[in-house]
Design brief:
- The chain is mainly alpha-helical and 116 residues long.
- It has 6 helices and 2 strands; from the N terminus they run H-H-E-H-H-E-H-H.
- The protein has a single domain, classed as Recoverin, domain 1 (Orthogonal Bundle).
- Helices cover 53% and strands 3% of the residues.
- It is globular and about 35 Å long.
């Protein structure tokens, strides 16, 4: 299956982000989430991406945003973002499916809330 341009770009960004500690990335997510709703609009998402890569143009960032916006609500939730950045983020142990697991939403919310 051919990857979308947003997915290809995001994979490159993912490699950069994964070099940082998860807690630091989570703090940054919270800092750019201006209204603390755990959802990033396009402007907030671009601010987040700019912290990791300045070599992308606006259309590249929009393509990544659209790739991450799984439910199509024009927002990237903490669940959508961290589920893609860290594929094992919502798993309970090794050997599990490495894909996005929306059922772990409550765990993700608690984890995000616990970051100071």
């Amino acid at each position: 299956m051919k990857k979308s341009p947003g997915e290809v770009l995001f994979t490159k960004l993912q490699e950069k982000i994964q070099k940082y500690k998860q807690s630091d990335v989570m703090k940054l997510f919270k800092n750019v989430d201006k209204n603390n709703d755990r959802l990033l609009d396009l402007k907030e998402f671009i601010e987040l991406v700019n912290n990791f890569s300045n070599d992308l143009d606006q259309s590249d960032k929009k393509a990544m945003f659209n790739f991450l916006d799984v439910d199509g609500d024009e927002k990237v939730s903490s669940v959508e973002f961290f589920g893609r950045i860290y594929p094992t983020f919502y798993e309970e142990g090794p050997g599990k499916d490495k894909s996005f697991i929306p059922e772990k939403y409550e765990y993700a919310l608690k984890f995000i809330q616990d970051i100071n």
